[in-house]
Amino acid sequence: MKTHKVTGGGAVRLQVVETGNPGGRPVLFLHGISQCSLAWSRQLDSELARDYRLVAMDLRGHGLSQKPRDVYGDSRLWADDIHAVIDALNLERPVLSGWSYGSLVFLDYIRHYGEDRIGGIHFVGGVTKLGSDAAMSLIKPAFLNFVPGLFATDVEESVRTFESFLPTCFNQALSASDLYLMLGYNVSVPPHVRQAMLSRVIDNDDLLPRIRKPALITQGPNDPFLRSENADQLKAVIAHAQTHVPNTGHTPFWEDAAAFNQRLRAFVETCSATRIPKPAIA
């Protein structure tokens, strides 16, 4: 496992880890809110590493990346982070795999930098909008009930929240060691980071129909936080997107890593071969 320090948007220092085949197609993993690159351990330490260059970054404010204030509301800064990682590691048309909030981050990138330098996108329980009635309609009450605790500045309250929040993410029981590990990297994210991220007002409805690169939509039917309409709406506006419906909750890459990795492999191979035609000009 290699580690890299990359300077992202606004000079924020980002922690990036890399493993796998240096000559393989790159896959860049983007975790969800309050998580870190360790969330992808069942991909980074898997058979995928034989064939692909696997890269995972700690988003700004998370993991071992820098955690300043007031740098989470600007779409361009998030886009610049992805651009900086692609440039610094010389990633050749990476597939961007974004879990939950991570999908918003790669959409920030596409909005500002386009699709020319990427090979495809993978929505993993991915959201595409925030801060509107339309966005709220796709989120289940289970997540909304946790929001006050996610914003809590009292340490004891924050820990209690994550002790309940983390098991809810999974459709199976976590071992004590996994729970303690996840609890550690979740509570290490300052509350101001979560509050700023969830306070953004984002609507990608204009961007999604213009996406031409291969896309894969993965969402478990037992997702405790997202309604099935979330994936349905994505598929309706990205007509060429493939879909994967694993029998999981919000963390298919962890709950059924073997099936997730197999489907991701097939998608990456599709990205290597597929060219989506440009829309006809009237």
Describe the largest sheet.
8 strands, mixed
Distance between the termini: 50 Å
Mean pLDDT: 95
Helix content: 40-55%
Using the coordinates shown, work out and report the CATH topology. Rossmann fold
User: Helix-strand pattern, N to C?
Assistant: EEEHHEHEHEEHHHHHEEHEHH
Structural class: alpha/beta
Task: Note the total helix count.
Answer: 12
Low-confidence stretches: 276-282
Shape: globular
> In CATH, what is the homologous superfamily?
Alpha/Beta hydrolase fold, catalytic domain
As for the number of domains, it is 1
Computed Rg: 17 Å
CATH architecture: 3-Layer(aba) Sandwich
Q: What's the assembly state of these chains?
A: single chain
